[in-house]
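In this supplementary section we document a worked example of the pipeline. Step one takes a protein sequence of length 107 as its only input; no multiple sequence alignment statistics are reported here. Step two produces a three-dimensional model, which step three serialises into structure tokens for compact storage. The input and output of this example are shown verbatim.
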Amino acid sequence: MEDAEALIKDLNGYGGLNLPEHTPDDRLEALLAEKLNALIQSDFNALVQFLYKVDVSESKLRTLLKTKANEDTGMLIARLVLERQQQKILTRRKFQGEPPASGEERW
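The serialised model returned by step three reads:
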């Protein structure tokens, strides 16, 4: 997964997850799913706050949970979270350009 360390840093910044900084890409989804399942069981309010901070689409989440009711909820949410974080990273890159050559102020 692209920019895994930046992604993990962002996720940890939203609070409560404490994912190891150097988590291998192939392990990140499963580890995040474990953490999210723990929040589902122990602190649902913290999970809702986390999802709000990450800006996961509520309608997408509801649809996914209804259509895949027999799958691991933590894994389903983890996939949505990682997808959203990747979108954010790509958006940041898109708008991080060189400063204007003319010396104009950047907004």
